[in-house]
Amino acid sequence: MEDFRRIYLRLCKEGGVEPQEGVVAQLQESRSAQGSRLDLSGQSLSADTCSVLAKAFHKDTVFTEVSLSDCMLSEEGARVLLSGLFDNTTVKVLDLKGNNLRSSGAEVLGQLLAQNKTLRRLVLEWNALGVWDEAFSLFCSGLVSNCALTQLDLRNNQINHHGASALALALKRNSTLEVLDLRWNNIGLLGGRSMLEALQNNKSIVQLEMAGNNIPSDTLKALEQATGHNSDRRSTLRESRSRTQVLSKEIQTLKEEKGRQFLSLMETIDRQRDEMGRSSRSTSSQIGQLQEALNERKSAVNSLTAKLQMTEAALALSEQKNQNMGELLSRLKAEKEEQREQHSKARKKEHEDAVLRQGKLLRDIQSLTDTNGQLKNNVEEMERRCKSQQQLIFELKQELTTSTAELKLRLAQAEGNVISYEHIKSFCNVNSSRDFLCV
């Protein structure tokens, strides 16, 4: 209980919501009472408080009964608060009396019934779930999917014959609901007939309250008879179950007695078996000795057999090796013969190539010898020509020296004579041309 109060205060702080004093006081009282019932009846719960309580209910594992009657829940607050109970696994009784739940409340209640698997009793007195047919149909669809609820209170919810028809369809497929209170609605004749038709298929409803719905007395009587039949069937079923339990206990007792007898018989058999064992031990010892001797002989035979198998295996292995060596020798001989032929062919080819190369070399040597003789002759001819040219150059140099000396002598004699100058000049030109030609 204290954990729930701390969770509530922590969630208020995290969400920035001011804790309601009435809720905190009620949680404190519930902690003092050390009970599993949370009673917030008459507390005006805001939407923020509903949001915080939804988160707390989602994690709650303490309360089995929650009373939220006359809390003036808004549509948003009811939607948020009930969504926190979708996955709750501890709350079995939920009281939402006098909260004026309408269309959105009916829808979220349908979702609650479809998802929650632990809720057993749901009180929805003094609400307005039946005002909108479509929303109430969603509520009925959730009831179809529910397999845990046994008591449902829908007093004063303005349910008309359309809502009764939707509820009747749900009851045809629901097999767990036992107590249904529909007093002080507006179901009417058509709704009553729909409920009567549903009870022809539903075998779980044992208590159906329909007062104050403008239903004719004969229809009410038929409904009472149908629920009476279900109640009788339930009583018969309970008696049958109780008888079954009694018979099961008797059968269990008989089984235990038979078990004891069987154990006694097994003990007797064990004693007889021990006596027979003692009487047969001597025979067993003799048989054991014979068996040992037989085992020794068998071991010797097995040893000889193993040696024979090993010898045969060694012989087979030797034969296999001999065969492999013969094959290997044959391959080596063939390879050696092939190599010999290849070597002979190679030597023959090399000899032929050597002869060809030798002839070619001889021809090349002869050609080079001839060329060398010609070159020697050319060299000798060029040497003779060079010597003759050198002799000619030497003679021209001597002649040039003599001519130069004569010119210098003549120049000294005829310095002022122009005619002599011109003559000397032409003479020099002639000599220069001759020297050039000589060169």
UniProtKB/TrEMBL annotation:
Q: Which residues cross the membrane?
A: none
- Give the highest taxon in the source lineage: Eukaryota
Just give the chief location class.
cytoplasm
Q: Where is this region: Disordered?
A: 270-294, 334-353
Where in the cell?
Answer: Cytoplasm, Cytoskeleton, Microtubule organizing center, Centrosome
- Where does the signal sequence lie? none
SMART domains linked: LRR_RI (SM00368)
Keyword check for NAD, yes or no.
no
Which keywords belong to this entry?
Coiled coil, Cytoplasm, Cytoskeleton
GO cellular component terms, alphabetically, are: centrosome; plasma membrane
Please list the residue ranges that the record marks as compositionally biased, kind Polar residues: 279-289
Q: What name is this protein filed under?
A: Leucine rich repeat containing 45
Source organism of this protein record:
Astatotilapia calliptera
